[in-house]
Design a protein that fits this description.
The complex is a heterodimer of chains A (124) and B (486). With 124 residues, chain A is mainly α. Chain A has a domain of 53 residues. The longest helix of chain A has 24 residues. Chain A is flat and about 70 Å long. The two termini of chain B are 32 Å apart. Chain B is mainly alpha-helical. Chain B contains 20 helices and two strands. Chain B is globular, with a radius of gyration of 21 Å. The longest helix of chain B has 32 residues. A two-stranded antiparallel ribbon of chain B has the order 1-2. Chain B has a domain of 224 residues. In chain B, 78% of the residues lie in helices and 1% in strands. Classes of the chains: A mainly alpha (124), B mainly alpha (486).
Chain lengths: 124, 486
Amino acid sequence: MLHEYGHIGILLIIALLFPMGALVTSWAFRYVGVRPFASQDPVKTDIYECGVRTEGPTQVQFNFRFYYVALLFVLFDVEIIFLFPWALVFDDLGWAAYGKGLLFIATFIVGGIYAWRKRALEWR
Amino acid sequence: MSDLDIVGPQLAVLVAAAAVLLVDALIPQHRRIVPFVALAGLALSAAWTLSWVARDDYQTAFEGTLSLDKFSVFFYFLFAGITATVVLASIDWVNRAGRGQGEYYALVLTSCAGLMFLSASRDLITIYVALELSSIPQYILAGWGKDNRSSEAGLKYLLLGAVASSILLYGMALLYGLTGTTMLDGIADAIAADGESHRSLLVLASVLLIAGFGFKMAVVPFQMWVPDVYQGAPTPVAAYLSVGSKAAAFAVVLRIFFEALGEGFLSDDWSTVFAVLAAVSMTVGNVMAVVQTDIKRMLGYSSIAQAGNFMVGLAAISVSGEEFTLGASSVLVFLAAYAFTNLGAFIAVIAISQRIGSDQIKDYAGMWKRSPVLALALAFCLVSLTGIPPTAGFWAKMYIFNAGIRADLAWLVIIGVLNSVISGYYYLSVARQMFLGDAEGADRVRVSPSIGLSLGVATLGVLVFGILPTPLISAAKDAAEIFSRQ
C-alpha cells in the first residue's frame, strides 16, 4: 500500500523541481546576457504585460446581491452535476434510485422556495 | 428503502429543519409555531429510534458506512433530548433577537442530524462529512448575536475548527494509506494482520486523530477557543456546544479508537496519551476556572476540566477480560449525566442573565432572595458538576474513577479526586454568593414557561439519575457491548 504512494512522492519531487528550475534559469540568464540585470522599462515591471491597463484601486465596493446570485448558481450547478450520473445509470438502478433522486431534488426545491420567499431572487 | 428506514431518526430531524424553513418563509404571520415544529421533528426522531429498539433488529446501512446499533441508539436519544432542551431554552432569546427565527432552529436541527450521523458512522469519510455537517451550523450559530463579541466567537471557532479538521484529515489519510480502507472494521483487521511493522506511523496517525478530535472535545492543549466562544456566543448556543458537540466527539473517538485502533500494542500507546491529556486537562481547566469572574467563562473552563474526566474512561481501555467495555460504558454514563447537569446550569444562567443583564458572578449575589427556585436549580447543578451525592454527577464520577482504578491508573484517579476538590471551591463559591450574598436589586427574577420547562427537565434528570442511577448505567453497559471482544 505504502509502495503505491511512491508515485505521489515522485510527482511531489517534480512539482518542487519544476518552479525551482524556472527560477534558476531566469537567474542564470542574466549572466549569459539574455536578460538584463535591472529592468528600467515600466512595461516590464507591470503585473500584466498585455491587455487593458488597470484603473483605480482593486478593493471597490460592489452590490452584495451578486453574492446571492453566485450562491444560487453554485447550488443549482452542483445539483446538475449529481443528476447527470443519476440519469445515466437510471436504467440499471430502478425505482429505489428514482425515489432517492426525487428526495435529493426535493431538498433543492425546499431551498428554492426559501430563496424565493426570502426575496433572494429579486434585485431590489 | 430499508437504508432510508435505518437513517430514519436523522431524516426526521432533517425534514423538520426543512419544515421549519418553509413555515418561516411561507407563513411568516405564524412564526411563533416554528420552535414547536422543531420539537415535533425531534419527537418523531425519538419515536423512530424507539421503533428500532422495539424491532430489536440492529443492522448497517449504505454499504456498512452507517451502523444502527445499541451505541448509536443511545446517542440518538441523547442528542434528541439535548436538542429539544436547547430549542426550548432558545425560544425567549430568539424572539428577543428578532431576526432569523426560522434559520436559527433550522441550523440547530441540521447540526443535531450531523451529531446523530457522527455517532452512527463506521467509515472515515462518513465520519468526516458528518463532523462538518454538525460543525458548520455551529460556527454560524456561535456568531449569531449582533455584538462584536459574538462575531469574534464565530470567527475564532470557524478558523480554529478548520485547522483542527485539516489535522484530522491528515490523520485519516495516514490511516487509509497504512491500511488501504476507510472502514473501521477493515482498519482493525489490517492492523491485526500487519500492524506491528508500521507501528510508529500508526501512533502518528492516532496522535493526529486525537489532536483533531481534541478540538471538539475541548481538552488541553486544544482548548484555547472554549472560554472565548462560550462567553461570546449566545448562551443557548454555548449550552448546545458544551454538551452536543462534546458528546458527539467522544462518541466518534470511542468508535475509532476502541473499534479500529483497539489492537493491544497500539492501545497501550494511545491510552497513555489520553491519560496524560486527561490529567493536564483537569488541572488546567480547574485552576483557570478558579480565577474567573464571568460565569460563562467559568463554565467554559469547567467544561475543559470535565473533558479531562471523560478521558479517564478513554484511557481505561486496558481493563482486560469480561470488563473490557468498562471504560466505554463509564464514558457514556458520564456523558449523559454531564448533559443533564451542564444544560441545567446553562439554562439557569440564561434565565438569570436575561433578567439582571449581566454574566458577572458578583451580580448573582443574593439570588436566593430574588428567585429561590432558580438559585436552588443552579446550585443543584453545580453540586452535580462537583460530584457530590445525591446527583447524577456523583455516580458518573464514581463510575469513571472505578474504571480508572480497574485499568491500573490509580495515579490518574488521585489527580482526578484532587481536582474535584479544587472544582468544589469555585462551583460552590457561586452557590455561596447566591445564598449568603446581599441582593443588589430587590425585584424578583421571573422565569418564562419554556425556560422553566427545560430547566425543570434538566434538573429532574440530574435528581432522578442521582437517586436511581441503575437504568442509566445498564443502558450505557448495553450500548458499550458493541466494543466487547469475543
